[in-house]
Write a structure and sequence with these properties.
Strand 4 (about 80) and strand 5 form a beta hairpin. The chain is an alpha+beta fold and about 300 residues long. Helix 1 crosses helix 3 and helix 4 packs across helix 5. It is built from 6 helices and 11 strands. Strands 2, 6, 7, 8, 9, 10 and 11 form a 7-stranded mixed β-sheet that branches. The protein has a two-stranded antiparallel sheet with strand order 1-3. A two-stranded antiparallel sheet has the order 4-5.
C-alpha cells in the first residue's frame, strides 16, 4: 500500500491567511477570535496578524511562540524570480526582492482592498484597523453574539436556502421564548455541548437568549389559498463564550420546544444534570451566523 497525503480542507482561516500573505508579502500567522463549524456563516468574525515593514525582521504574532522568519515562507505564497547579480543561479523570493510588510502610511483601507482582491467570492474583509501590540483576539474576547435563522413555512425557501433552516411545522414562538429565558445566566452547559468539546470547564454565561419572528412575505411570494404566511424566526444568543455546537444545540432545543416536544422542566433538568439526551438535537449548521464579537 502507498500512503497518500490527505487533501487539506478549505477553511476561511486558510484562505484569508493566504490572501494576507500575498498582500503584505510576508509570512504571517492569522489568529481568529472564534472557530465555527463547516457551513456556519459569519458577519462579524475578527482575526489578527502582525507584520513589519522590513523583510529581514521576524514577524511577531499575538501570544507566545508566534514568531516566523520571512525565509520560512512556503512556495505557494512566495513567488520566485531570477537574480541579476547575487551569484549565478541564485533565485530571490518576492520577500527578498521587494521587501514586505504594510507601512502605516499606506493606510488600512488600501490593505482591505488588497486582501479582498485575493479572496474567493464567498469571503470578504469588511474593515481593518491598527490595534495595540498585545491585542489577542481570543483572550481579549468578552462577549460574542450568534443568530440562528429558521424559515417557518409550508414552502421551502429558495433565496435563503443556504442561510436558513426550513421547518415546515408551525412553531410556537412564545413557547420558544419562555424556554429560551431559562438559559440566560451562568450555568453548566455540559448538556448543551457536543462530546469531545475539549474544554476544562463547561460553565458559561449567557447574557441574552431571545426568539423573534419576522414576516417572510414579499411582493414576489404568491401564496396559495389556505397556505400559512411564511415567517422568518430568529434566535439571538449573546454569551461570554460557547462550547462546541452549543448554539446549534440551543437552537435545536428551542425548535423542539416550538413543536411542544420539549418543555421547561426538561431544559432545567438538562442544565442541572448535564445530560446531553435531555436537550434537543444539534441544528444544522447553515442557519447559524456569528454576528459580532466584543473585546475588552
Amino acid at each position: 500500500t502507498v500512503d497518500r497525503p490527505r487533501a487539506e480542507l478549505r477553511t476561511v482561516q486558510s484562505v484569508v491567511e493566504r490572501a494576507v500573505r500575498l498582500a503584505v508579502r510576508q509570512p504571517i500567522n492569522l489568529i481568529g477570535s472564534s472557530r465555527t463549524d463547516s457551513g456556519v456563516h459569519a458577519r462579524g468574525q475578527v482575526c489578527a496578524f502582525s507584520t513589519v515593514e522590513r523583510a529581514d525582521a521576524a514577524v511577531q504574532g499575538p501570544g507566545p511562540d508566534r514568531s516566523i522568519a520571512p525565509e520560512a515562507a512556503d512556495s505557494a505564497t512566495a513567488a520566485s524570480a531570477e537574480s541579476d547579480g547575487g551569484g549565478e543561479g541564485k533565485r530571490l523570493t518576492n520577500f527578498e526582492r521587494f521587501g514586505g510588510g504594510w507601512p502605516v502610511e499606506r493606510g488600512v483601507d488600501a490593505l482591505v482592498r488588497a486582501v479582498n482582491a485575493r479572496l474567493p467570492s464567498d469571503v470578504l474583509v469588511r474593515s481593518c484597523e491598527h490595534v495595540r501590540d498585545d491585542f489577542n483576539p481570543i483572550a481579549d474576547t468578552q462577549r460574542k453574539a450568534y443568530s440562528y435563522t429558521i424559515w417557518n413555512s409550508q414552502r421551502r425557501p429558495l433565496w435563503e436556502r443556504r442561510s436558513a433552516l426550513h421547518v415546515w411545522h408551525e412553531l410556537d414562538v412564545e413557547r420558544m421564548s419562555r424556554v429560551a429565558q431559562l438559559l440566560v445566566g451562568e450555568h453548566d452547559f455540559a448538556g448543551f455541548a457536543a462530546a469531545g468539546h475539549g474544554r476544562v470547564t463547561t460553565v458559561r454565561t449567557l447574557f441574552a437568549c431571545t426568539v423573534r419572528a419576522e414576516s417572510g412575505d414579499s411582493p414576489h411570494f404568491h401564496r396559495v389559498p389556505g397556505e400559512r404566511p411564511p415567517r422568518r424566526i430568529i434566535i439571538d444568543v449573546v454569551g461570554s463564550g460557547f462550547l462546541w455546537n452549543m448554539v446549534r444545540i440551543i437552537a435545536g432545543t428551542l425548535l423542539e420546544a416550538g413543536k411542544a416536544k420539549i418543555g421547561p422542566d426538561r431544559v432545567v433538568r438538562a442544565l442541572r444534570t448535564g445530560e446531553r439526551n435531555l436537550a434537543g438535537p444539534t441544528a444544522p449548521p447553515h442557519g447559524l451566523c456569528l454576528e459580532w464579537i466584543e473585546f475588552a
